[in-house]
Amino acid sequence: MSLTLPGAPLSGRPAGVFNGDVTAPPHLLYFEPTPKRIRVKFGGETIADSTGAHLLFETGLLPVYYLPVADVRMDLLRPTDHATHCPVKGRASYWTVSAGGRTAENAVWGYPDPIAPWLKGFVAFSWDAMDAWYEEDEQVFGHPHDPYSRIDVLRGSRRVRVSVGGTVLAESERPMVLFETGLPVRYYLPREDVRLDLLQPSETVTWCAYKGRARYWAYGGEDVAWTYEEPLHDAERVRDLVCFFNERVDLEIDGEPQRRPASRWS
């Protein structure tokens, strides 16, 4: 099920995927059932357990799980006066979750009278407000796994040179090249080829649903590089390697300067 604004609905294809003769609409919703069992935990309680979950794909946003109300512990939810309006989805009502002596304010929302009628009867949870999410019996981090996203990690031999303001931070002919749907190509380099003495350990920690927990290094007060010391299986080939933000450094590949890509890390 899908909805485009403006224009007629497109059916049977995920957000952002179009034939070459179709112009992408400025905003698209695509609502797709998932065969996975989805569980949400908070305060020691399983507050949702569903085999009827759907993924909502929306232009410019990460996918979001929407769960049937019948699969949610509504006895642990209290409606609030908070409301928001989305021009694509409609007016959202909110609930506060209370379990195990803990509370997450306005952490659940749904659309009682949605613009997209197929959202009716479903609710969504604030990912970060919950304690844990499971797809089947595997805990997932960061956001739901996107069935239209994938990672390829390939061994390379191109010469990669990283610098900032003329200072060389890394130079290697042994990159592992990571291709991830919708993101810039990333070059992961052996630590021996990186001037770690010029970088400062950062307190920043992030989670990727596909690669795992990343920790960072800074240069000149800005985070410029990261590593996965205990990667998830999709990123096992980049374990302990160092990757730099293409958006924040000067990158050369085989002597050719690369344009800094525009992304949310620019």
From TrEMBL:
<feature type="domain" description="DUF427">
    <location>
        <begin position="38"/>
        <end position="127"/>
    </location>
</feature>
<feature type="domain" description="DUF427">
    <location>
        <begin position="160"/>
        <end position="247"/>
    </location>
</feature>
<protein>
    <submittedName>
        <fullName>DUF427 domain-containing protein</fullName>
    </submittedName>
</protein>
<dbReference type="Pfam" id="PF04248">
    <property type="entry name" value="NTP_transf_9"/>
</dbReference>
<dbReference type="InterPro" id="IPR007361">
    <property type="entry name" value="DUF427"/>
</dbReference>
<dbReference type="InterPro" id="IPR038694">
    <property type="entry name" value="DUF427_sf"/>
</dbReference>
